[in-house]
Hints:
This is Lipoprotein. It comes from Amycolatopsis azurea DSM 43854. Keywords: Signal. There is one protein chain. With 175 residues, the chain is α+β, with helices and mostly antiparallel strands. It folds into two domains: 1-32; 55-174, no CATH class. Helix content is 15%, strand content 27%. The chain is elongated, with a radius of gyration of 24 Å.
Amino acid sequence: MRYLTNVIGLGLIVVAVSACGAQNQAAEPAAGPGSGTLSTVPPSPTVPPSSAPTSAPSVPGSLPGQPGAPRQEVPEGSTKLPDKQLDASALPADYPREVYTSNGGTILNIRGQEGGCGHATAEAAQQDGNRVTVNLTELKGQTGQMCTMDIRHPVISVALSSPLGERTVVLKQMR
């Protein structure tokens, strides 16, 4: 009889712990910093205001070909920039060299490079009558965070102050 009581008690404990565990897993993604709940969802990297790109804000739900969050595919209706208009000589040999225009030439869609917890960004640093210089940067994740060892090539959109026309696009990688 005593054995049966122990088995039933142990069974109730297992059921109670399982129910609590399932409830905590459902609440985990909503947990934020300082909530006291351990979350396996990686936090978004924090970008200091001074280094935040101004020409390509992350805008959820932006229109195709408009500046917004990086995407894996080139927006529909984009036109590949001719090689003669692209100066990518400052990029490392293994860096992608793809630039497309959209929205009448006022948006550049550039294939960037990021890895692990990094996030690729681009900024039109200088625009004049002959050229547009775009700085490509990879923002690193928080320190102490576990990251995968993969390389991704997202498409990053950059808004120009006027249509590109015949100007040359100069790509530079900033560290």
